[in-house]
Amino acid sequence: MHINEQSKIEINGKPQYISIRAQKDNLPLLLYLHGGPGDSALPLVLKYNRELEEHFTVVVWEQRGAGKSYYDFKNDEITIDMFLEDIYSLSKLLTKKFNQKKIYLLGHSWGAVLGLKFTEKHPEMVIKYIGCGQVVNMKKSCQAAYDFALDHANEKEAERLKKINCSYNDNGWLKDLLYVTKQVVKNKGSLYGKRNYNSLITPFIFSKYYSIMDLYNRQKGSLQSIEYLWQELMDINFENQRSFKILVIFIEGRYDNHVSSALAKKYFDTIESEKEFYWFERSCHFPQWSENDKFNDLIIKLLD
After folding, report:
1. Which sequence spans correspond to the domains of the chain?
2. What is 114-168 written as a DSSP string?
3. Which of 209, 29, 222, 198 is closest to 110 using CA atoms?
4. Would I find Hydrolase among this entry's keywords (predicted)?
């Protein structure tokens, strides 16, 4: 029986949007954690990763404050731990609903911060963890992205970049961060072969699940999440975490200069527990969408 449930449910006191899709009953649960913070992904997963629904019950969660789960953060003390609590509550709800013991967890970028942290904290709930565009050490990653931008800058851009403190802890940090990111994207360091994100925006505009208000909220939610969470995100560093209780898998775009894949590989080599690493040779930060067929095939092969 085909499953297609699109709904808002309350998770830890906040209404949050969940998409649950599968081609038949009793398929293992796969929870997708989108990037950002605040960068919802439902229309992209539906466009590029639909094949996964033949093998998994695919759950795409629009995290608190993101996309169709947008709300104003101003009265909340927003922390990374809140998102981990949300994942815990959601996972419990899903495993109960579908009568399963554990989930497959797939995290991209910011979602890979949440995913790896959750895997550390609750290995009993995860079958396998898949990190895509894995963040390892955020300060080092930001430095690498900045260096890439500077290496590809013209004179005027270099002048602007040289005024930027890429630890992003001074007054104009948000503008600086957005400028560096724009330079990385423009120089094909983020989306393989492209100088902009237009192809990642179009599926949202044409999605039957996204209204005009949702599109507007998506923009607001993305900026708000960065504002509230970036300073805590800058302290993320997994380098001393060398062992996990379950299999961890990293999927990395060879040319990712947005979140350094070179750093991810370096860290991966230090992990002493069960692990697998896959390079995607025609990808930067988005292998799941740049090489979606290869990505989908790999995820399906990871099934026990």
Report:
1. 3-301
2. HHHHHHHH-GGGEEEEEEES--SBHHHHHHHHHHHHHHT--HHHHHHHTT--TT-
3. 222
4. yes
Region for residue 168 given its phi and psi (left: phi exceeds 0; alpha: psi -120 to 50; beta: otherwise): left
**Predicted confidence (pLDDT) per residue in 18-47, tens digit:** 999 999 999 999 999 999 999 999 999 999
Cα 83 to Cα 62, 105, 110, 264, 285, distances in angstroms: 11, 14, 11, 22, 22
Which DSSP category does 86 fall into?
Answer: H
Could you tell me the sign of the dihedral formed by the alpha carbons of 26, 32, 38, 44, in that order?
negative
Select from 20, 30, 15, 114 the least CA-distant residue to 68. Answer: 15
CA distance 290 to 280: 9
pLDDT digits (tens, 9 = 90+) for 34-81: 999 999 999 999 999 999 999 999 999 999 999 999 999 998 999 999
- CB–CB of 256/133 below 8 Å? yes
**Cα separation, 7 vs 167, whole angstroms:** 38
Chain Cα centroid distance, residue 37: 8
Distance CA 254, CA 271 (A): 20
Q: Note whether 64 and 83 are within 8 A (CB).
A: yes
DSSP letters along 247-298, please? EEEEEEETT-TTTTHHHHHHHHTT--SSEEEEEETT-SS-HHHHTHHHHHHH
Work out the angle between the directed axes of helices 198-205 and 212-233 (0-180°, nearest 10). Answer: 130
* Identity of the residue numbered 219: Q
Residue 237: partners with Cβ closer than 8 Å, 6 or more residues away: 136, 137, 138, 139
CATH code of the domain occupying 3-301: 3.40.50.1820
